[in-house]
Design brief:
103 residues; alpha+beta; four-stranded antiparallel beta sheet; 5 helices; 4 strands
Length: 103
């Protein structure tokens, strides 16, 4: 199964970041899930069932320049710039639904 994070920013935005197997490279990023949390739940389920977003979903693959930008952003002082990881591959879909009910 792919590794992933669900990230919430200080504006309420939700993003899905999908990594390679050892989390050293970002394969896929999709944003704006705050408008359709149900789609985020479906996408997380698909990943947990073995889907490969980079190979199977249209768009949002990460290129080399974007990887460097993501690395800089992700390794920054995220507590002060307003984002945090709220879920990853270890969360069940039911826990994710419960989490969305609270945010």
């Amino acid at each position: 199964m792919k590794k992933f994070d669900v990230i919430k920013d200080n504006g309420g935005g939700l993003a899905l970041v999908v990594y390679n197997d050892d989390r050293t490279f970002v394969d896929y990023i999709h944003t704006s899930y705050e408008f359709d949390k149900g789609q985020l739940i479906k996408d997380v389920q698909l990943i947990q069932y073995g889907a490969d977003p980079c190979a199977e979903w249209d768009g949002n693959e990460v290129m080399n320049g974007e990887q460097r930008c993501f690395d800089y952003w992700y390794n920054s002082d995220h507590e002060n710039i307003g984002w945090r990881v709220i879920a990853n591959e270890e969360i069940s879909v039911y826990d994710l639904i419960d989490l969305f009910d609270r945010i």
